[in-house]
Amino acid sequence: MDTLHLVTPAERHRKEWHDYLHEWSLTGEGMTPWALDPGNGDFDRFLQLTEQFERGIDIPEGKVPAGLFLLVDGSSDRILGAVSIRYRLSDYLFRYGGHVGYGVRPSERRKGYAKRLLSLALAICRERGIDRVLVTCDTVNVASAKTIMANGGILEDEVIHPDGSPVQRYWIDNR
Ligand SMILES: CC(C)(COP(=O)(O)OP(=O)(O)OC[C@H]1O[C@@H](n2cnc3c(N)ncnc32)[C@H](O)[C@@H]1OP(=O)(O)O)[C@@H](O)C(=O)NCCC(=O)NCCS
Q1: Which listed CATH number (2.60.120.1440, 3.30.420.360, 3.40.630.30, 3.30.420.10) goes with 4-129?
Q2: Which of 116, 144, 168 to mutate to test the pocket of ligand 1 (most atoms within 8 A of CB)?
Q3: How far apart are CA 15 and CA 162, in angstroms?
Q4: ω into residue 33 within 30 of 0, thus cis?
Q5: Which amino acid residue places its CA nearest to atom 1 of ligand 1?
Q6: What is the mean pLDDT of residues 64-77?
Q7: Which end of the chain has fewer CB atoms < 10 Å from its terminal CB, N or C?
């Protein structure tokens, strides 16, 4: 039986979080979602900012209230992935970023975790009353596009990010 679920980060994840960041750093990819490491490797700052974003207090200029959740299996604290759920859209998020950003641990990819993670994130969106969910991905990111489509994403359009890269925008009917 599938025992995957999303949890709020807590002190007990300290070591696992550092392990995850280390493993991710070996790929040379930027951290996705950004909110998993907003303090450049500082776990205390990560916990503090996660709570501030969740409560929508003292958040940095231009950012919106958001939740950050870890994908784990059963009672294990091993982090398999992470997702950021933006509770509303700024202009930037509407154009490029979307409601939901996620990443899967490099050694755990291609096992279906992203598809489950997005599905679990959609349930949280539903609880929050987000009944149309915008999810975006770089056009070259075939794995992410498949993840979104597997969760009901319908391609709206393709736009060019200010950095020059094409981005696909998908809407998911979450009612
Ligand atoms: C994109 C990412 C989240 C996918 O995670 P994952 O757990 O490997 O994805 P899944 O195993 O759930 O697979 C989803 C689909 O993508 C396909 N897929 C996964 N990796 C792939 C790859 N490297 N190339 C092509 N297709 C791939 C899977 O086969 C599956 O398609 P299917 O339903 O047709 O079989 C992961 O590669 C990642 O974290 N990348 C870096 C961060 C990132 O790009 N995040 C998304 C931002 S929008």
Answers
A1: 3.40.630.30
A2: 144
A3: 36
A4: yes
A5: 144
A6: 97
A7: N
